[in-house]
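Query form — protein 3'-phosphoadenosine 5'-phosphate phosphatase

QUESTION: What is the three-dimensional structure of this chain?
INPUT:
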Amino acid sequence: MSTLFEGIIGSDVDLARRIAETAGHILVTLQKSGLFEGKALGKAGDRVANAFIMEALKQQRPDDAVLSEEEKDNPERLKRERVWIVDPLDGTREYGEERTDWAVHVALAVNGRATVGAVALPGIPLTLCTERSFGALVGRGKPRMLVSRTRPAREAVAVAEKLGAELVPMGSAGAKAMAVVRGEAEIYLHSGGQYEWDSCAPVAVAQAAGLHVSRIDGSPLVYNQADVYLPDLLICPPSYADQVLALIRELEAA
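ANSWER: The structure tokens for 3'-phosphoadenosine 5'-phosphate phosphatase are given below.
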């Protein structure tokens, strides 16, 4: 009988993709089982997906460190150059509500940089990764800006107003970031608080697609830090970046 991972998978990108896709399949199966619903479904999904991802990385990359939203942080990771940063279920609320705007994030940070990433969108289903991402597309006419469907960030709403942008509510960070990669929106601006696992895989994929990625002050996103709080993010085509960053500076100076 064949196993999911026969031997060691050499490519980090292929490994990230296969882990994210398989975790997504597991989550969809659990979602359709009828055994859980609502918040209980979300909690079960977090635990089950995390257990699979941790076991897969232990088998395939035993010498690498792992930072997962669902695991107790091990400070030993700070001594490693290679750290897998994962969110087993990004958008737990959306998953529990049986929506499609949730994701699985599997990323590898090397020396603090989001280098390899895969974002699975199992509800569609689709997986984007750093070697198979869509080309970055720029929409025409009125720009569309992605915001949280439950708590839109103040800065994003203000910038959208100045740009004349249409606000597009959506669930998980991964779903929003991949909507920009797929050309379904032009700007994802977030300032309401996130952690490294929320953005590492989406950032890696967005960079590979040729998009601008930074913090909202224009500085780079740095991963595998002692404090994993990484509260803000901008993903957009390069043609929008200077204008959006300038508007944010104006808002902060006001």
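ADDITIONAL NOTE: The first strand starts at residue 65 and ends at 68.
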